[in-house]
Write a structure and sequence with these properties.
Elements (H helix, E strand, L loop, with lengths): L43 E5 L5 E5 L17 H59 L11 E3 L2 E3 L1
Antiparallel strand pairs: 1-2, 3-4
């Protein structure tokens, strides 16, 4: 096909067109179907439904499933490997939870220590700054404080 755009002119042919006609298939000889009678005539059963209608039909035996082939036994090594993998995963998960708990507990203790230091530092600051202005309270002079035998002597 040509990519150049040419105006359409009726009656002008660009290229010859091949027309393909389907080829018919050879007829297949049909084999006549011969009905085969069963060896025994099945019993006819009638059932009365709860609403009073009667249903009549042949009784059919339920289809029997073919026996399933027995599965080969699983080797003990495969079972041990599978259980070991499950145990390893459980231990790894437990250790992860343990380390996460220890980390959280350490952070909590650290925050409590910092909170106690801030509160104690604030108390000391209140004692220092309030005692000098009002004349009451405990005077704490850090330069003159002496520690003797692990006891504080002011």
């Amino acid at each position: 096909m040509n990519n150049s755009a040419k105006p359409f002119v009726p009656g002008r042919r660009e290229a010859t067109v091949e027309v393909h006609r389907p080829t018919p298939l050879a007829p297949v000889p049909s084999v006549p179907v011969v009905p085969v009678q069963p060896d025994t005539i099945p019993a006819v059963t009638s059932i009365v439904l709860p609403d009073g209608r009667i249903v009549t039909g042949y009784t059919l035996e339920p289809a029997k499933a073919e026996p399933v082939a027995a599965k080969p036994p699983v080797s003990r090594a495969a079972v041990n490997i599978a259980l070991g993998g499950i145990g390893f995963g459980a231990v790894c998960g437990g250790l992860f939870l343990l380390t996460a708990f220890i980390t959280a507990l350490t952070a909590l203790i650290t925050q409590l220590i910092i909170l106690a230091a801030v509160i104690f530092g604030g108390w000391v600051a209140v004692q220092i700054f309030s005692a000098s202005g009002h004349g009451r309270g405990t005077t704490v002079n850090i330069r003159k404080a002496v520690f003797k035998r692990n006891q504080f002597h002011a």
